[in-house]
């Protein structure tokens, strides 16, 4: 996953990473929000989900201490990262800044 992850975040297209856990209730809420965000931004950005229980080293590498944690990367650079549930408008506007 690490090599593939590097390829994904090195994209010129912004990538929103959703660090989540299957047992996390707020993560389920965030997931449905991200579906709407994806509809809003179309091909302008990618949205990728990373299960912190399956990829703990990746979560640790990016300082993920709670779920959900969202991070935006472009050209391999971490542009934004926050924990907690975020709404559709906030995330859509955030991604549009980097497209």
TrEMBL record:
Belongs to the thioredoxin family. InterPro entries: Thioredoxin, Thioredoxin-like_sf, Thioredoxin_domain. Residues 1-99 form the Thioredoxin domain. Disulfide bonds join 24-27. Pfam families: Thioredoxin (PF00085). CDD domains: TRX_family. This is Thiol reductase thioredoxin. One of its GO terms (molecular function) is protein-disulfide reductase activity. The lineage of its organism: Bacteria, Pseudomonadati, Bacteroidota, Flavobacteriia, Flavobacteriales. The record marks 25-26 as: Contributes to redox potential value. The keyword Flavoprotein does not apply. One of its GO terms (cellular component) is cytosol. It comes from the Bacteria. The record marks 18 as: Deprotonates C-terminal active site Cys. The active site is at 24 (nucleophile), 27 (nucleophile). GO terms for biological process: cell redox homeostasis. Keywords: Disulfide bond, Electron transport, Redox-active center, Transport.
